[in-house]
UniProtKB/TrEMBL annotation, chain A:
Coiled coil: none annotated. GO terms for cellular component: membrane. This is Dehydrogenase. Residues 65-116 form the 4Fe-4S ferredoxin-type domain. Transmembrane segments: none annotated. GO terms for molecular function: 4 iron, 4 sulfur cluster binding; metal ion binding; oxidoreductase activity, acting on NAD(P)H. InterPro entries: 4Fe4S_Fe-S-bd, 4Fe4S_Fe_S_CS, NADH_quinone_OxRdtase_chainI. Keywords: 4Fe-4S, Iron, Iron-sulfur, Metal-binding. Pfam families: Fer4_7.
Amino acid sequence: MSTKTEKFVEVRGRWRLSKGASGLVRSLLATAEYFFKSRPTTLYPYEKNKLPEAFRGVLTYDIEKCIGCGACILACPNNCLYRRSGPKTDKNKPGVYIAFEPTHCLFCGLCVDACPPVSGALSHSSVISIVSSKKKVMWEPWEWAAFTELIKEKGWEYDAVDYDRVEPLIKRKAEEIKKRLEEKSTGGKK
Amino acid sequence: MCGFANMLNAVIILAAALGSVILAFAYAGLLDFITIYLERKVWGRIMQRYGPAHVGYAGLLQLISDFLKYLSKELFSPRRVMKVFYYAIPLVVIAIITVPLILLPFDYVAISGLDGILKLIGIKVDLTKYSISLLMDHYAPGIGLLGYVAIVALSMPLMYVLAWAQSNKYSALAAFRTVLMLVTYEIPFLIAIAAAAILGGVSIYGIVQKQASGWFIFVNPVLALVLFIALLAESERPPFDHPEAEQEIVHGWNIEYGAGEFILLYGLYLYSKAIYAAGLVTLLLLGGWLGPAIPGIPISLSNAIWFTIKLVAVFLVFIWVRASVARPRVDQILEFGWFKLLILSIIALVISIALRAGGVVA
């Protein structure tokens, strides 16, 4: 107890003007440094957040690259990926595409790992989530592809997407993509 | 006939002087707006925050919206306060703190700004000679500086009464601390003012004219240091905000007041004091409204612009110090005031006398 008080008195006695001045200058320099540093926070709804590179956002689907092997369907723990038949665009492709249920997805990324390197159709985007008033949103392959293409076009990166608002947009784009695929189609069901 | 002409002249001067007072009020309001906005923004920036960001462009109208919100609140008094003092003293404090607007040449700056704008649009009038502080300085040189010192010294005991009248333990502590600040920092402040007066004379206009050859901050840096610290303490800016000390005694000297008086006491009184402090630093150390002429602009308007720029720059340094330095203990404040700042101020006075007597400063 007594040693503590002695220490206190000693510290108080040692305070000098020169020491105070150097501390003052150091603290002034420190705050000046912080003034010119960039802020770690953003004004979120008005500015978009920067996310880490490995961020697992909403899945995207490149319909041109997909080879229809179905490895992702087997890998999915939530069973939110489905097989759909469609126009056969290439001799080596079976004409099988993947449908996706974004409201059911848990963003685990196992399907991305399972997707064979020759295809590489699946990847994570930087879209944080799909927000919808509906309980279930189901995307046919062309709608999913339309969403993928719209992310870049409309600048939805680093943001949540209000599905109720963008649904007609996606539907319209999906029609375009379907037409494009059918034009490319080699014909025949095989 | 001659007497009638003189009477007419006097009436014209009276009307113009009243106009200059109103202009000075408008100028002070503008400065209040700029400095409070800058304080919020810059301080936030230093703490890596944003500050006001949503009302108006980049939060520019935040102060006005706050002001309107505060005015809409209920007037409230606790049960056992002295009602007369409780309601009267804030008004007296505000009335007294507006006086330095014409003691320091704020009205001269405002009226020269108007004069410059009129000259810019082609109306040739000489309005600056009607500035009331210039007239006062002509007939009683030195009244500006002495009056300012007196007003600041008067405002502190009024703060004591104000804090005491609230019948609150915290405000009583704040009252004691107010008097402590007064007795500790008034003397170095007075000596620093005397040192400046020795360099440039008692008239503020004379001091500013004398700085055309060299600013006093370079002539006598010790004086600059002492005056800056003493003015920080006088205007109760952090780190000398002991009467307020939000972390210890929760806004101490105005703890019981509601929003209406809070905006009067905190927004107007304290910020007016801070603006006067920044203005005094500008006038005594940084050459006042003197500055290089801006091409295409009449000299009176450029005077107003330079004064405003310098004042805001000094206020930015105030904000910088506020963000950097923690509040010392009360005994450290006392020790610093009596054993360091007082000695420094005497050194500054001696240097001033030596410079003047040695003929370095004409």
